[in-house]
Amino acid sequence: MDREALKIRLNEHLDFVKEKGYNPIYLGLYGSQNYSLDYEHSDVDTKAIVIPTFEELVFNTSPVSTELELPNGEHCDVKDIRLMFNNFRKQNINFIEIIFTPFFIVSEFAADEMYYLRGLGEDIARFNPKKAIDCMAGMAQQKFCALEKEFPSKLEVLEMYGYDPKQLHHIVRLREFMERYINGESFQNCLISGHKEYLLRIKMGEFPLEVARQIAKVEMEKIKLLKEEFEKKNHEVNEQVNAQLNELVLKILKKQFNIN
Question: Is this model's pTM higher than 0.70 or not?
């Protein structure tokens, strides 16, 4: 899908979020397009940062966290700014990538703050390196457990291949991501694999079940070793990033409710 088509789809997502009554200040693409691993039938999925209403703050209503399904089957993960920033702190790379994606929409109201957030991207991505590696390893384990699991939505895929090729390609991608992150490469660079053709072959189901099982097993062993070696060293949490995220939330909410 070309850039113009992606922009159109992102605007459709933004309109849908607004139609549902939310107040989005940022909407970013996540998934295969960010890794240059998309193909003709890849979905366009997004995450949206929304501002709570005054009533939600006053009455301490649970912050919004919901996944909207558009009429075409695509998804938008909608989160209150406080929850979204907490997900950045948790170092979940599926959330952090929306700060780096070239496909995003920023509201005029919070443009300065959201561009500042994007400028903090690399610092946020290394806010807590140990937690980041834990998260990557945990995600890979989830993909490994799902490799042959008979989810209702995956029965057709499992019947065709005996496993889910998408899960396998994620395992391999995450192992490479971990290695490069540990070696000090930027998060931006880590998003794009150095072995895209191989990953696309895996994703398209070129490998038979027994080979896929072996690939998954070897990759998970590598991930286990990477994590163990990384944890032997001391890794500090960057508290300055924590303060910067808090300041951003406070600044945006003060502006929203005209508080000096």
Answer: yes
DSSP state of 22: -
Q: What is the pLDDT of residues 131-153, one digit of tens each?
A: 999 999 999 999 999 999 999 98
Half-sphere exposure of 215 (CA within 13 A, CB side): 26
Task: Return the bridge partners of 49, or none.
Answer: 26, 79
Nearest 5 degrees, angle CA 211-CA 159-CA 170? 50
- Residue 122: closest CA among 103, 90, 100: 100
User: For the CA atoms of 176, 179, 181, 185, what is the dihedral angle to 10 degrees?
Assistant: -90
Q: At what angle do helices 81-89 and 239-256 cross, to 10 degrees?
A: 170
User: What φ, ψ does residue 57 adopt, rounded to 5°?
Assistant: -70, -45
Mean confidence (pLDDT) of the chain: 96
